[in-house]
Amino acid sequence: MRLVGLTGGIASGKSTVSNLFKASGIPVVDADVVARNVVQKGTAGWKKIVKTFGNDVLLENGEIDRARLGQIVFSDPAKRQVLNRLLAPHISSGIFWEILKLWIKGFKVVILDIPLLFETKMSQWTHPVIVVWVNAETQIERLMSRDGCTEEEARNRINAQLALDWKKSEADIVIDNSSTLDDTKEQFQEVLRNVSEPLTWKERLRSRDGLFSVVLCTAVGVLLAQKNLL
């Protein structure tokens, strides 16, 4: 199995690229979806958040007020680190189970859409790593337009993340999403060809079919050895 890392920055267009992979028939494990699931009302993640941040981060129905929680952690780096530490084990476990389900189904290429790919060190488990990059001016404009925030608020939220230029320098593949959607789609086609290349022998061993082959060869080898000993 080939695990492809996909990351970027806020308002960089990562979700656009993620959707292009889905439309091309390649499964995507979305860490944001996993994160939402692990903080649903009554879950262990939910209980940790309420215990740490109090009932002020709850909606009337008891679910987490993600907008309110976001305001708290984006304005306070220490609280953001606390939240990340609280949820990291639950999110990692959720991602693992999603990968396992796709492995069982026999998928050979899986996209891991993880905003904190580098921060959580999960980049070491993925190859290639794709970074969706955008220039700073465009990123600010898109974030202001998307969320209706001020320029200062947009800059604060961007600065709260690992620098996108640094992520770009660490990437195996960069998609420049600063221009038009058509331009991004054109770059995506080349990326799609890249990640769809035949698996390496190590990747084949990690696939379901590869495991079956190893088990079969091992079983045959044991039977032949036993026969020779008789």
TrEMBL record:
Q: What class of enzyme is it?
A: transferase
Q: Which domain of life is it from?
A: Eukaryota
UniProt family annotation: Belongs to the CoaE family.
The record's Gene Ontology cellular component field reads: cytoplasm
Functional summary from the UniProt entry: Catalyzes the phosphorylation of the 3'-hydroxyl group of dephosphocoenzyme A to form coenzyme A.
What is this protein identified as?
Answer: Dephospho-CoA kinase
Print the keywords alphabetically. ATP-binding, Nucleotide-binding
**Source species of the chain:** Zizania palustris
Q: In which pathway does it act?
A: Cofactor biosynthesis; coenzyme A biosynthesis; CoA from (R)-pantothenate: step 5/5
Q: What is any one GO biological process for this UniProt entry?
A: coenzyme A biosynthetic process
Q: Which InterPro entries match?
A: Depp_CoAkinase
* EC numbers, comma separated: 2.7.1.24
One MF term from GO for this chain? dephospho-CoA kinase activity
**Pfam families named among the record's database cross-references:** CoaE
Q: Where are the transmembrane segments?
A: none
